[in-house]
Automatic annotation (TrEMBL):
Cross-referenced PANTHER family: PEPTIDE BIOSYNTHESIS PROTEIN YYDG-RELATED (PTHR11228:SF22), RADICAL SAM DOMAIN PROTEIN (PTHR11228)
Protein name listed in UniProt: Radical SAM protein
Cofactor: [4Fe-4S] cluster
Taxonomic source organism: Alteriqipengyuania abyssalis
Region of interest (Disordered), residue spans: 1-22
Domain Radical SAM core, chain residue ranges per copy: 57-210
Keyword terms: Iron, Iron-sulfur, Metal-binding, S-adenosyl-L-methionine
Domain of life: Bacteria
Length: 330
């Protein structure tokens, strides 16, 4: 993968969201079928393709300290998806009768992709609900007129979810770099003032409770007159931490009963993501938004090929999805 070169305003210090845990010991998350202690590893079948994510490319105007996909202004490990490639997947959904409700666009920063507005319009015009993950900064603001037209035509079918890592400026900028707060708040306020369906994605600091965090976001939204109910978990999504290098328990088939969870609750039971890696002739379908580079989670070029069970052989499966209970969809 291309190395990340930092943007001018990239954060200098360690991430305020750094995971506090020992290093991941050798031997864990190696065999796709068996955990380090010899137990059968948990799997998640694809029950329904409710959400298809399209990664528009890794290029981003920011270089956040712990960006899970390692985006930056220079990392094009995942190249820009084209509108034609996106349309192939929309066609496949329609042709094969997948019951897909939602198309999610993520990056990088989707609005930096020159083909993005075309694929956004295509998805909406085919009747999908659309969720766009954006940092709401300059790249998005360049498309205000077109976005207003889409809002006029498709209303609440379009949701824009803005990453606001924390409800305080110093923590947000500790992760995202200096000068990232005011622009994000400005973009969020523009979306709110213009009647877009919006949501915010944030994170919990180590030791910060959910109640405390939601109160912090509620006070911020009131102060900035942003129309989001911070107590609605689908509109103010707060994610657990991820760090593939830190120790975490592996998930075995026995864990479902022990934890009172079902494979059906896990994100890859109902979603897949399309990525186009640099140097490859066509996009590929991977298990989920969190693991774009690992070949073990790459299922082929078509949705039909990706209709297989996912073996939970990655630390993100454990920390973020099963133990953290998180999903990228609103
Ligand atoms: S804005 Fe999002 S995609 Fe861009 S570097 Fe930050 S976390 Fe990564
Ligand atoms: S990280 Fe991805 S593959 Fe692993 S459990 Fe979560 S959604 Fe599934």
């Amino acid at each position: 993968m291309a190395s990340r070169s930092k943007s001018r305003n990239a954060p200098q210090g360690p991430s305020p969201f750094a995971v506090e845990a020992d290093a991941l010991p050798e031997g864990k998350f190696t065999d796709p079928d068996i955990t380090a202690d010899g137990s059968p590893r948990a799997q998640v079948p694809l029950l329904e393709l409710e959400t298809l994510w399209l990664c528009t490319g890794t290029l981003c105007n920011l270089a956040c300290a712990t960006c899970y996909i390692e985006s930056s202004p220079t990392n094009d490990a995942l190249i820009y998806l084209t509108a034609d490639h996106a349309a192939r997947y929309f066609d496949e959904i329609e042709r094969d009768g997948w019951s897909t409700r939602e198309i999610g666009f993520t990056g990088g920063e989707p609005f930096m992709n020159p083909h993005f507005m075309a694929m956004l319009k295509d998805a909406l015009s085919r009747g999908f609900e659309v969720l766009v993950l954006s940092n709401a900064m300059k790249p998005m603001r360049r498309h205000e007129a077109k976005l207003l037209a889409l809002r006029e035509a498709y209303g609440d079918k379009l949701t824009i979810r803005v990453s606001l890592d924390h409800h305080t400026k110093p923590v947000h900028e500790g992760e995202r770099g200096s000068n990232s707060w005011d622009a994000a708040i400005g973009g969020l306020r523009w979306l709110s003032d213009n009647g877009f369906r919006i949501a915010v994605a944030g994170r919990l600091l180590p030791g910060e409770g959910m109640v405390e965090a939601r109160e912090g976001y509620a006070a911020l939204f009131e102060r900035e007159t942003i129309r989001i109910d911070a107590h609605d978990p689908s509109r103010c999504v707060l994610f657990p931490e991820m760090d593939a290098d830190k120790d975490v328990a592996e998930i075995t088939t026995a864990c479902w009963d022990i934890l009172g969870k079902s494979p059906a609750d896990i994100m890859c039971a109902t979603s897949r993501m399309v990525v186009h890696r640099k140097g490859e002739p066509a996009p590929r379908v991977v298990a989920c938004t969190l693991i774009p580079y690992d070949r073990e989670f790459d299922f082929g070029e078509t949705l039909a090929e990706a209709n297989v069970a996912v073996k939970l052989n990655h630390p993100h499966c454990a920390r973020f999805c099963v133990l953290g209970g998180a999903s990228c969809s609103a």
